[in-house]
Amino acid sequence: MTRLTLTGLTPGPAQVWGAVRLVPLLREQPITDLRLHRRLFPGQELGVAQLGGRSEYFSYVPHAFVADWTNDGSSAAAYGTQLTPPKPDLPSLAAMRLRMHRRLARREGPGRLRFLPQHLALEGYLALHFGGPTIAWTEWSQRAMRGGLSPRAEEAYLGSEVRGLADALRVFEIHPGQCGMLLYLADALAAAFVVPHPADYRALHPSLLQDLYGELVHHYATLMPPVTEFRARIPGPGITGLADLRAAAEQQAQHWRTAHDALLAAGLLDAEYTAHRVYRMGPFTLSRLLPPLLPKQENHIGETITDGDGRLAYLKTFRLSEKLVRRAHLLSRLAAHDWHLERTAADLGLTPAQLGLRLESAGFGLLLRQDILDGYRKAARHG
Question: Which residues are CB-neighbours of 219 under 8 A, at least 6 positions away?
Fold first, then answer.
């Protein structure tokens, strides 16, 4: 278990546009021996990632990130700054191609790794107890025993569909030294994004519109009123010169940083995550994070790149909706009890019939035998 820390990153002054609040994350010392750039897939955004074995992952994949690093701590330049040949003409809609990706993270040579941002985290969530029942209890259907949760599908919204986000990213100021941001919608944390170097952030800032966001975030942006701005106020008494004014301004900035971490970002920073290492990149480690998956709490899945000292070089998160959390929580409790319905129901304070109907409402009804499910419905009707 581990916690996220923003060591080396300082929250800057927040900027507000409607229901969107963006908090920049600033680095005093950029990371120079790891650089990120984006590789676009124009006209081939629908992609298939081959995960190994017989598993495949279908999703919207607009781009990949390519990480370049050095092993001796020397500076690395972002590969994306080089001149490239003109892009080929985009295919027509009638001939849209399906792009095949070999693995979510793939080495492309010494000191270079291509990975699909967000999808490392999303695949970790979708693969959660994907195999289905581990013991052939009588309640489970033959389909559940043969195929588990295959196929499994979840929905998300593009950043371009989140109201106000495009305008906010266009008009918000990018600060000197900015290496990331925390995105809030109606003051609910929607996403965190961190990169090693300010030049990387400037290049990848527009990619936030192509990221995926949960339904909660979309609803907050659409239905909630504009949020208020947090303005610093420096009292006049006691200010006798520039030194006093500078000290008072720094005190206000420190107060904002402390309040931000303790209030707005608490759901992200206070949670304990299960970290799974995906790839070792010289002195850096690419990992995916899974939250505790507790209902009625903030739950963010994510992926990180950290250096040998645990310093955060890269971070991208996705906030799970309450519906997604409930589904994952049910699967986790079933797996903890070897998929035994009665023991799982007792753990959750339910009857087996109530648990069966809860599984059906969560979209897992096909895992149960039809006669068992009909019996649960009949028991519910007769109280």
Answer: none
Most confident of 108-112, 191-195, 361-365: 191-195
CA distances from 212 to 208, 232, 248, 381 (A): 8, 33, 40, 40
Task: Report the candidate in 157, 151, 61 with the shortest Cα–Cα distance to residue 102.
Answer: 61
Q: What is residue 56's predicted lDDT score, i.e. its pLDDT? A: 76
Collapsed DSSP state (helix, strand, coil) of residue 193? strand
Paired tokens of 330: 């049910």
pLDDT value at position 212? Answer: 92
What single DSSP character describes residue 254?
H
Query: What is the SS3 string spanning 46-109?
Result: EEEEEEECCEEEEEECCEEEEEEECCCCCCCCCHHHCCCCCCCCCCCHHHCCCEEEECCEEEEE
Q: In what order do the strands lie in the sheet with 99-102?
A: 55-60, 46-52, 99-102
Among the listed residues 197, 131, 121, 180, the one whose alpha carbon sits nearest the alpha carbon of residue 154: 121
Q: Provide, for the chain, the percentages of residues in helix, strand and coil under a 3-state DSSP scheme, each rounded to the nearest 5.
A: 35, 30, 40
- 52: tokens are 């190994």
Beta-carbon count within 10 A of 319 CB = 26
What are the tokens at 148? 């588990």
What digits encode the pLDDT tens for the residues 326-380? 999 999 999 999 999 999 999 999 999 999 999 999 999 999 999 999 999 998 8
Q: CA 156, CA 28: separation in Å to the nearest integer?
A: 35
**Quick one: pLDDT band at residue 233, thresholds 50, 70, 90?**
confident
Q: State the helix-helix crossing angle for 352-359 and 370-381, rounded to 10 degrees.
A: 110
